[in-house]
Amino acid sequence: MEILSQLLSGFAEIFNVASILAISAGVLAGITVGALPGLTATMTIAILTPVTFSLAPDIGIALLLGVFVGGIYGGSITAILINTPGTPASIATTFDGYPMTKMGKAGQALYMALFSSVGGGLISGVVLICIAPQLAKIALQFGPPEYFGLTVFGISIISSVSGQMLIKGLIAGVIGILLSTVGMDGITGVPRFTFGSTAMLSGFNLIPILIGVFAVSEVFYQIINPVLKKDDFEGKISGVYIKLKEMKQYLFTIIRSGLIGTFIGVVPGTGGGIAAFVSYAEAKRASKNPESYGKGDADGVAAAESANNATTGGALVPMLTLGIPGDPVTAVLIGAFMIQGLQPGPLLFQENASTVYALFAGLLLANIILFILGVIGLRYFAKVANIPQQVLGPIVLLLCFVGSYAVANSMVDVAAMLVMGIIGFFMKQYGFPGAPLVIGMILGPMVEKALRQSLTLSNGEWSIFIYSPICAAFLALTICVSIVLPIYRARKDARVL
After folding, report:
1. At CA 17, angle to CA 11 and CA 22, rounded to 5?
2. Closest to 161 in 3D by CA, of 281, 377, 331, 367
3. What pLDDT digit, counting tens, does each position of 43-88 carry?
4. Which residue blocks in 352-388 are alpha helix, DSSP H?
5. What is the DSSP track for 73-130?
6. Where, by residue number, does the polypeptide cross the bilayer (predicted)?
7. Alpha-carbon distance 153 to 323, whole Å?
8. What does the DSSP 8-state code read for residue 382?
9. Is 460 helix (H, G, I), strand (E, B) or coil?
C-alpha cells in the first residue's frame, strides 16, 4: 500500500502539461532516431542531456526516459519495412517482420510491434516499481567496504557489455578509469594529471565525453562506412491493421516475453538484443506451429518486440538501486542523473523518493504515450528511413557542438568532445566498444573513494573486505563474472567450432 500511495503521488507530480509535453517530445525523438539505421537511443540521450539542464529533475529525466522507450520501439519500423534493424535490439524482429511485409502485411506487422512494445514496457515498469524499492532498502545497509565490493562488481560487467571483444573492452574500461582521475583529488585536494593547466583542475565533464564517444564518433563512422539499405520504402503501409479482439491470441506471448525481457534486462550488460533472441527462441519452442516462425508469423514479432522493450524497466533496476548501469543507455542516464544533482543508488530512494516515484510514473506514462503516438503517426515515422545521411550527419554534429558547449559554456568541453569523437571513431573502426569506457569513467571515482574510505576505517588492513560478508560475496561474484564466465564461454565457443 505504501508503494501504491507513493506511485499515486508520483503520477500527481508528473501529470501536468509540461511533463506530458516533455515525455511526448522524448518518445517522438526516440522513435524518429530509432527508425534511422545506425543511430541509437544512447546517442540521442547523450545529445539531449544538456537540454535537461534548465528543466526540473523529474521532467528532465522523464524526457530522457521517453527517448529510451521510443528509441527501442523505433528500431522495429525499418526492421519490418526494409529488413534493416534500426537498432541492434530489433534484429530478431526482422525474422518475421520483413516476411510479413513481403506478404503484404506490413501494417499488421507494424501494429503488432507497437502493441507488443507497449505491453512489454508496461510489464517492465510494474516489475521495476515492485522490485526497486525493496532492493534499495537492502542496499541502505551498505558501508564503504560493501560499496567497494559493489562498485568493483559494477566495473566487472565490462566483460559482459564487451561481448566477444573482452580484451578490447577491458582496455576501453581502463581508459575510462584513467580519464576519471584527471583533476583535483576528491579527498586530498591534490591536482592529478592536469599538466599545469588550470582548465583541467575540474577534470573532464561527463556529458561532452558521452556525446563524443556515442554521437560524434557515429557521425564520423557513417561518413566512412555508410549504412546500406537493402530495399527502398515508398512510405505506403499495406495490410490489415490488427484489431484489439484479435490480440487475444498473442496476449500470452506478449506477457511471457515481457517478463523474460524484464528479468534479462535486470542482469547488467545484457540488453534488448539478447532478450529478443531468448524470447523469440522460447516462443518458437512453445508454439504449436514452430515451422511458421521465420516465414511471417506475427507471434514472432510479438515475442521479439515485447522482450526488447521490456529491458527498459529491467535495466533501470540496477541503475536506480545500486548505481550500476544495466546497459549503455543507462550508463548515459547515470550521467544525466548526476548533472541534475541525483546520485543513483540506495540513498536516492531515501533522499529523493518523490522524484523516483515520479520517474516510475513517467516510465508508465511514456509507454502509454508511445501507443498514442504510434497509432496516430506510424505511417509518417516510416518515412524517416529515407532521410539521406548527408543531410542527417551535419544536423547531428551541430547538436553535438551546441550540447557540449551548453554544459559549462566552455570551449574546453567542445574540444574534449571532438577529441573523444575522434577516439571513439577509431574505437568503432577497430572493434573497441564504447560502453566500457563510460562505465569506467562513472564507476572509477566511486571505487577509489570506497577503497580509500575502507582502508581508513581499518587502518590500512585489507582484510576488511573479506570480513564483510556482502563485500566478499560481491568480490566472489566479480571473479565469476569477469574471469570464470568468459573462460567458460571461450571454451564453449571453441567446442562449437
Report:
1. 85
2. 331
3. 778 778 777 777 888 788 888 889 888 888 888 887 887 766 666 6
4. 353-381
5. HHHHHHHHHSS--SSGGGTTTHHHHHHHHHTT-HHHHHHHHHHHHHHHHHHHHHHHHH
6. 20-48, 60-82, 109-135, 147-179, 199-221, 250-278, 356-381, 387-408, 415-444, 464-488
7. 11
8. G
9. coil
177/154 Cα distance (integer angstroms): 13
Confidence of residue 385 (pLDDT cuts 50, 70, 90): low
Please give the Cα distance from 475 to 494 (Å, whole number).
Answer: 28
Residue 131 CB coordination number (10 Å): 17
Domains of the chain by residue range: 2-496
Q: Minimal CA–CA distance to 45: which of 57, 58, 27?
A: 27
Q: Which of 212, 56, 149, 194 is nearest to 469 (CA)?
A: 149
CA distances from 463 to 146, 199, 394, 453, 478 (A): 13, 39, 55, 14, 17
CA distances from 171 to 176, 290, 423, 425, 481 (A): 9, 43, 13, 15, 17
For residue 46, how far is the Cα from the chain centroid?
A: 11
Contacts of 94 (CB under 8 A, 6+ apart): 79, 80, 83, 84, 85
| Cell numbers placing 242 | 490488427
C-alpha–C-alpha distance, residues 43 and 94, integer Å: 23
Query: In angstroms, what CA-CA distances link 128 with 136, 154, 254?
Result: 12, 19, 17
Q: pLDDT per residue over 452-490, tens digit each?
A: 989 988 888 888 888 888 888 888 888 877 777 767 766
Burial pattern 228-252, b for ≥16 Cβ within 10 A else e, equals eeeeebeeebebeebeeeebeebee
CA 68 – CA 313 distance, rounded (Å) = 10
Question: pTM for this structure?
Answer: 0.71
Q: Report the C-alpha gap between 73 and 305 in whole angstroms.
A: 7
Q: Residues 6 or more apart from 97 whose CB is under 8 A from it?
A: 76, 79, 80, 109, 113, 300, 301
